Amino acid sequence: MVILGGARFDPDDLPRFAGELTARVFGGARVPTLDEPDVVAAIALLAESGGGAADPDEFDPAELLAYVLGIVAAETSLPAGALLEPVDLDVRRGRVEDAVRRVVGHRA
To answer: Please, which residues have CB within 8 angstroms of residue 91's CB and are 6 or more apart in sequence?
Structure first.
């Protein structure tokens, strides 16, 4: 099992992972960087996942994880005051999960 930013990494459920990581980052954790040993381990898990999110014809596993972490970083760095209408953190977490689902496509 790999833990990134306090969230359990599941290569077969990237939207859930991204949502949990988002909640943890809003709670004070930080978004991991691609050069951290646990992230390297997560990339290996993603590459080995059978029927999971990684499709080598679409994305390299490192690219896919970078996209997922980038979505989390983008949402969590956006100040609440920048939004036109206030939304609670559960809504923002859901938006991250939806965005990752769109990136992953039918595999989510």
So the answer is: none
